[in-house]
Amino acid sequence: MTLPDAMRAVEISQPGGPEVLRPVTRPVPESGPSDIVIRVAWAGVNRPDALQRAGAYAAPPGASDLPGLEAAGEIVAVGAEVTRWQVGDHVCALLPGGGYAEFVATPADHALPVPAGLTLDQAACLPETFFTVWSNVFMRAGLRAGETLLVHGGSSGIGTTAIQLATAFGARVFTTAGTAEKCQICERLGAERAINYREEDFVEVLKAEGGAHVILDMVGGSYIPRNIKALRTEGRLVQIAFLESPKVELNFAQVMLRRLTITGSTLRPQSDAAKAEIARQLEEKVWPLLASGDLGPVMDSEFALEDAARAHARMESSAHIGKIVLKVAG
Ligand SMILES: NC(=O)c1ccc[n+]([C@@H]2O[C@H](COP(=O)([O-])OP(=O)(O)OC[C@H]3O[C@@H](n4cnc5c(N)ncnc54)[C@H](OP(=O)(O)O)[C@@H]3O)[C@@H](O)[C@H]2O)c1
Q1: What's the mean pLDDT in 115-128?
Q2: 6-125+270-327, CATH topology level
Q3: SS3 label, residue 118
Q4: How many helices (H) and strands (E) does the chain have?
Q5: Ligand 1: which of 134, 151, 195, 218 to mutate, most ligand atoms within 8 Å of CB?
Q6: Of 175, 182, 123, 185, residue with least CA distance to 152
Q7: 307 falls in which pLDDT band (50, 70, 90)?
Q8: Per-residue pLDDT averaged across 261-269, rounded?
Q9: Could you give the CA distance from residue 322 to residue 163 in angstroms, rounded to a whole number?
């Protein structure tokens, strides 16, 4: 297939608010020997895109400067070393960047098939949150069936994914969210108890349950000492962002006395091999659950690619529940 030289895309014209996202024309990316090129049908919008836009989360060396960490569409080119995929296959993929565009290149083993029964807009919502939740909650924190998970921001893209995944693997899930409506949706997704953090203290709720084995946190700041109180002995705190602050004064005695583990990670700077291993585990353990309908993406809203600024404004308003996607093709 002959690809065009140029494509529609949305770039970050300068660090700033949503208005700095600007429709542009860019060259179509070429695939390296182990890459695929995808004609993007839909691109997922994630909070890290907004951080990158604001100048607080630089693209790693070698990655596209265009935002967009996940997409779904049709493969239009495969590198010489790629054996798994063929031109015409429909995939969803984790991207090093560049999803807000008609075409994007990514390592072939960061792509996964579109789960049976899911549409391309649904599939575009999967990679960033499923890679993040699987690698942090299951691979890093080792959540097991019967254990208790507390996930903050339960109505977020990450939160809705974590609630469903942990429930599907037999954990008890507690979560926090900022409104009664968000709490209701979290409980419908499988959370045993959603705590409206504006009205209730999650520490008290978790302590009454004997404490959390694992906490997935994106807030940080004042939540860090409270998370430590909410953990049980041998509990694990996984930090994936700091919406409030990365800095806090902390008494580490409880970490020692109750043998706690504090860990965390960001997905984007990890090696291609590490991401390929996450993809492999997801395909084996989680993709069958998506195909059977046991879990699925929670969709908030869809915007045209050129309306990416409006999509970011909605995400930053925190009015959304679940995932926001950009329609790129057609
Ligand atoms: N480490 C990684 O690799 C990685 C990868 C992807 C995403 N992330 C991070 O994970 C977080 C979620 O990402 P996303 O794309 O799912 O974003 P999102 O849908 O915009 O989620 C952010 C959520 O945070 C909640 N929130 C904001 N301030 C809060 C506070 N003070 N206390 C409690 N909850 C608060 C909001 O819910 P309420 O309205 O209920 O407050 C909102 O739903 C982001 O911080 C993102 O940067 C990390």
Answers
A1: 97
A2: Quinone Oxidoreductase; Chain A, domain 1 (3.90.180)
A3: coil
A4: 11, 15
A5: 218
A6: 175
A7: very high
A8: 96
A9: 12
Tell whether pTM > 0.90.
yes
On the question of pLDDT at 162 being above 90, the answer is: yes
Residue 178 has pLDDT above 70, yes or no: yes
What distance in angstroms lies between residue 324's CA and the mean position of ligand 1's atoms? 13
Distance CA 90, CA 139 (A): 27
- Look up residue 6 and give its two tokens: 């140029």
Paired with 175 in beta bridges are 151, 194
Please give the number of the atom of ligand 1 that sits closest to the Cα of 135.
3
What is the CA(266)–ligand 1 centre distance, in A?
A: 13
- Ligand 1 atom 16, closest CA: 157
The domain ranges of the chain are 6-125+270-327, 130-264
The structure tokens listed for 309 are 């600024």
Q: Report the length, in residues, of the chain.
A: 330
Which class is 130-264 in CATH? alpha beta
pLDDT classification of 330: cutoffs 50, 70, 90 = low
User: Looking at ligand 1, which atom is closest to the CA of residue 318?
Assistant: 39
Confidence of residue 2 (pLDDT cuts 50, 70, 90): confident
Q: Give the model's pLDDT for residue 12.
A: 98
Compute the distance from residue 155 Cα to the ligand 1 centre, in Å: 9
